[in-house]
Amino acid sequence: MKKLVFVYICLVMTLFVNAQQRKKVACIGNSITYGYSLPDRNTQSYPAQLQKMLGESYEVSNFGKPGATLLNRGHYPYTQQEEYRKAIDFAGDIVIIHLGINDTDPRNWPNYRDDFVRDYVALINSFRNVNPKVRILIALMTPITDRHPRFLSGTRDWHGEIQLAIENVARYTGVQLINFYTPLHLYPFMLPDAVHPNQEGASIMAQTVYSAITGDYGGLKMSMLYTDNMVLQRDTPLTIQGKANAEEQVTISISNQHLKTKTGLDGKWSIKLRPLKTGGPYTLKIGTANQKLQYNNVLAGEVWLCSGQSNMAFMLKHSSTAKKDIPQATDQQIHLYDMKARWHTDAVEWDATVLGSLNHLQYYRNTEWKTCIPATASDFSAIAYYFGKALRDSLQVPIGLICNAIGGSPIESWVDRSSLEYEFPAILKDWLNNDFIQGWTRERAALNIKKSTDQFQRHPYEPSYLYESGICPLEQYPIKGVVWYQGESNAHNWEAHEKLFKLLVQSWRKKWNDDYLPFYFVQLSGIDRPSWPWFRDSQRRLIEEIPYTGMAVSIDHGDSLNVHPNCKQPIGERLARWALNKTYSRDIIPSGPLFRSAISRGGAVFLSFDYGQGMKSSDGKSLRTFEVAEIEGLYYPAIAEIVGEQVKIRSKEVPKPRYVRYGWQPFTRANLINQVSLPASTFMAEIPVK
In angstroms, rounded to a whole number, what is the distance separating the alpha carbons of residues 15 and 17? Predict the structure, then answer.
């Protein structure tokens, strides 16, 4: 009996000691922390899931209060609630604070924003007062999606301002800042009511806190682009970055460089290498105490991202010169990274089993860098291949080509979500029934996902989807520039495309932290679609409005019935001309004649062009498709001739011309070229009045 009592006492004491040793974690917040809208908040809220992840050595308590504001003069201050008093009594060893969402209410932020930082600091200090050794982590707020009824009337902007205030609080107080925003922003379907995460979203929050507390970020991880045979950008300080566990030493070696760094509390690390000498092969080694990564046959050369829709995805084996070119496509100094879709956007209903993977951005197949041989080149983008081969022939350096083009994709699917939320929010609304998005695009997407029962089902054509699935994973892998062939799925609305294209270039330059990132694109060719002349002219104007861009004209290789003309070699080489001239400063004419100015004199119009040296007709016949008008919309054919370095046009029907246009047919027979046989672009212009 005494022995049993003794065992019982020992057991109780052991349990007591263990309880005393358990680290107490207090989760402070509003309805999101509380677990509002979850079927079973006691098991599905982020604090409940965090408890399972941390295990028995931690005691996690949920002190979330639905509706609570951080602001003490807000409509429902957290510090006046019973949950706050319980949290103070709990005296946690670790405190996680996620407040601010309810402060976006128009009753709060507009009136009391000046109090926010002071109130947040006071809240932090109140937990430090009851436990001076407490470890405090404050969170950037979870997203509020564009579906929120007050998104445009203030919530979007106030949410962003509060995020900045939270960052200021973290810097001032020295507490650890964690990020609930970024990992959820990519998955709007996880916020069914636009605010509250579902169970999966709460799991992401729990994982974020778990990693922040323990420093466990899953070990050493690199961008998916790090494989054998990769090409690293030459002749520039080279930033290599990745993730590892918190405060872990990372070593990197390549050539004669051996460097070390340490990860931050967020697990991120970055090392800047001295410029690599052109060539190779190199061996890149990256390691931590417990993991070693080695990449072989690494070259240093020129790396380009090749993207867009079907005409960029169009494979070399379908090109008109494939039979001749594929057998010769062997070059150990050209390496290809070919990102292919798991499911093509053909006119079919996708099986229901693929729909969950789509929602989780698992759209691209796994791939790796491969050397250029006939087998790999055959299935690679024809445009990208011819572009890269032209660079290789001219520069005589290794070339790395990354292609992630998706057939049928509209430009809005390639723009980051934040840019659309702030600059073009209308395109996010009910996208399957949104007139900003081309009808064919919406119909094809609806067919592909017809078997889905999820009202928030995603598709590659959805705004931001391909940015999130095909650009974000590249993780700022260093590139020299971008070549782009897209627009067919936006040609119905050139005005919207103009805005979206600017956002695309802006967002990608921001992604790579390079305001000068070259961006060379293909102007749409000719086809019997009425809106295309307007679209082509809009594209021409874009190169005047966006610096460090260039446009390859393709109207001479169009097909009146086929949106996929198979003559790709000239187009890839015309993109290369822009790169060679503008990026590599080679003395080469980058383009055919591009309209510069028009003046009226003696009833005729004299047109001047950039890159117009040696202008002539492509077929030896008279110049054609020039038109003039006195009133916009009433154009008449004009007789055109080359006079010196200008084109002179006139029409008996229009004695006082005010407007001029060229190549203004969907499928055009325009024939103006320059001395290197490059075609002139479609254009429309108003003639200045003297």
Answer: 5
Measured CA to CA, the distance from residue 379 to residue 274 in angstroms comes to: 35
Q: Is the pTM of this model over 0.85?
A: yes
From the first residue on, what is the mean pLDDT of each consecutive set of 10 residues in the chain (690 residues)?
A: 50 47 96 97 98 98 98 98 98 98 98 98 98 98 97 97 98 98 97 98 98 98 97 96 97 97 97 96 97 98 98 98 97 98 96 95 98 98 98 98 98 98 97 97 98 96 98 95 98 98 98 97 97 98 98 95 95 98 98 97 95 97 98 97 97 96 97 98 93
Tell me which architecture the domain covering 20-214 has in CATH.
3-Layer(aba) Sandwich (3.40)
Query: What CATH architecture applies to the domain 371-583?
Result: 3-Layer(aba) Sandwich (3.40)
Chain region(s) in the chain for CATH 3.40.50.1110: 20-214, 371-583
What are the tokens at 593? Answer: 């004649």
Which residues contact residue 101 at a Cβ distance below 8 angstroms, ignoring those fewer than 6 apart? 30, 32, 141, 142, 144, 159, 195
Measured on CA atoms in the order 153, 154, 155, 157, is the torsion positive or negative? Answer: positive
Q: How many angstroms separate the CA atoms of 98 and 567, rounded?
A: 56
What stretch of H or E contains 179? Answer: strand 176-179
Structure letter (DSSP) for residue 315: B
For 589-615, b where at least 16 C-beta lie within 10 A, e where not — what string? ebbbbbbeebebeeebbbbebebbeeb
Q: Give the integer Cα–Cα distance in Å for 140 and 150.
A: 20
